[in-house]
């Protein structure tokens, strides 16, 4: 195994969970299903839930929650609103939210509140209560999406729409990465994953089932589907992983440089 401290730490945290999983005697599944489970997620909700499930994050204080949740929610709101205005497709879960907002009086953000609220109710019925951080995260996301949506107007030229969609995708990834890196909040998917584990089911498979189920339901009610839906579905997980790895590499390199910054001076003093 690698001697890199960051990689080793992540490996040990994952190994620490294996005895618990084995005790649950989960059913054997095919290699294809396992590969689907190991995806980082095909939507922003899935990526956040998976990251908080696999990696241990410090519990933020109230001030830290405000510090990270507000800017992250603003970025997510701008990203989702930009993708929606471009009209080239949304993330799989957001396909459902856009379809729900089209066939009901609910706005996009309100659709997110209602959907997440129902999932929280289900999780609570099975003994898993949502945290204040998760509720705040959902509330801020919905508010930011509606506010940004009222300010961003979809352009007509296809070239401008493509640029708007690409920019929205980048902003969305930055917002999700900020939430994941700081461990600031989870969401309804995370709560239901805890329910699955308690009842002896595969949490990651449940996450994927939720994402695919909401996506199919969104298509059925006319949600916004397009080429960006495919890009996000296959690119969200790898994009977040690459971004987090870059952050960790920068942080580790900085620590190494700082720890070794005194060595040359010490050597020159000794030679003198």
Verbal overview:
The protein is an all-alpha fold and 272 residues long. It has one domain. The protein is 76% helix and 0% strand. The protein is built from twelve helices and no strands. The radius of gyration is 21 Å and the shape is globular. The C terminus is likely disordered.
Question: Which structural traits does this protein have?
Answer:
disordered C terminus; mainly alpha; 12 helices; 0% strand; 272 residues
Topology record:
Elements: H1 5-23, H2 31-37, H3 44-54, H4 62-86, H5 92-103, H6 108-125, H7 132-151, H8 158-182, H9 188-198, H10 203-220, H11 227-259, H12 263-271
Helix pairs in contact: 2-10, 3-8, 3-9, 3-10, 4-7, 4-8, 5-6, 5-10, 6-7, 6-9, 8-11, 9-10
State the helical fraction.
over 70%
Rounded to an integer in angstroms, the radius of gyration calculated over CA atoms is 21 Å
Number of helices: 12
Q: Report the portion of residues in β strands.
A: under 5%
Instruction: Report the order of strands and helices.
Output: HHHHHHHHHHHH
DSSP summary, beta strand count:
0
């Amino acid at each position: 195994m690698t001697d890199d401290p960051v990689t080793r730490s992540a490996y040990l945290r994952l190994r620490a969970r294996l005895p618990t999983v084995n005790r649950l005697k989960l059913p054997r599944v095919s290699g294809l299903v396992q590969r689907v489970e190991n995806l980082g997620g095909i939507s922003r909700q899935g990526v956040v839930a998976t990251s908080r499930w696999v990696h241990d994050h410090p519990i933020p204080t109230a001030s830290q929650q405000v510090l990270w949740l507000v800017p992250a929610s603003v970025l997510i709101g701008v990203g989702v609103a930009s993708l929606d205005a471009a009209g080239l497709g949304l993330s799989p879960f957001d396909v459902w939210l856009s379809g729900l907002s089209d066939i009901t009086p609910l706005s996009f953000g309100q659709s997110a509140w209602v959907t997440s609220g129902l999932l929280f109710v289900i999780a609570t019925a099975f003994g898993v209560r949502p945290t204040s951080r998760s509720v705040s995260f959902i509330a801020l996301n919905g508010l930011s999406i509606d506010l940004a949506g009222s300010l961003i107007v979809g352009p007509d030229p296809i070239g401008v729409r493509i640029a708007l969609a690409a920019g929205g995708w980048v902003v969305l990834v930055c917002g999700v990465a900020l939430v994941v890196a700081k461990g600031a909040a989870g969401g309804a998917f995370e709560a239901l994953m805890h329910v699955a584990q308690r009842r002896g089911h595969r949490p990651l498979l449940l996450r994927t089932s939720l994402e695919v189920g909401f996506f199919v339901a969104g298509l059925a009610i006319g949600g916004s589907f397009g080429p960006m839906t495919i890009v996000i579905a296959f690119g969200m997980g790898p994009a977040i992983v690459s971004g987090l790895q870059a952050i960790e590499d920068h942080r580790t390199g900085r620590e190494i440089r700082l720890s070794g910054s005194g060595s040359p001076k010490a050597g020159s003093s000794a030679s003198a």
